[in-house]
Write a structure and sequence with these properties.
Layout (H helix, E strand, L loop, with lengths): L26 H21 L2 H17 L2 E2 L1 H11 L10 H11 L3 E8 L9 E7 L2 H4 L2
Antiparallel strand pairs: 1-3, 2-3
């Protein structure tokens, strides 16, 4: 039996040229990770209580219109105060809601801090700048 091993450095041994790419080595893994991240975000949003999703988005927008800086702690305290009966079993969906708010140009990420509300997510919170507050400030 004869085994042929390709010494070809520009193809995979099949004689076919690899597909051209504009990516640098390692970028494909980064792009795949980004796709997986967005799939995970969509999955947790889908698993969340749909009423909670709508009210949480309302809360983010309301707070973004009311103050310059927005955090998930602000939204959570607002929800606990005004809508205590509306909950979700999927707390990770809060991140998906902030991502959605950023896509809508309501907020943009500017930093992070460790929260005193440490019952989930190890206290790590993103700091968001409101893009709506300045528009409404008089």
């Amino acid at each position: 039996m004869v085994v042929v091993v390709s010494a070809c450095t520009h193809c995979d041994g099949t004689g076919q040229e690899p597909a051209p790419t504009d990516r640098e080595p390692g970028e494909a893994d980064s792009a795949k990770a980004e796709v997986n991240k967005f799939k995970a975000i969509a999955q947790v949003k889908k698993a969340a209580n749909p009423v909670w999703v709508k009210v949480y988005m309302y809360a983010i927008k309301y707070i973004a219109e009311s103050q310059e800086i927005v955090t998930s702690d602000d939204v959570r305290l607002f929800m606990d105060d005004r809508f205590p009966q509306i909950t979700t079993h999927e707390n990770r969906a809060a991140g998906a809601m902030f991502t959605e708010a950023a896509k809508r140009n309501w907020i943009r990420k500017i930093g992070a801090f460790n929260s005193d509300l440490t019952d989930f997510n190890q206290g790590y919170r993103t700091i968001w700048e409101s893009l709506l507050y300045a528009d409404l400030a008089h």
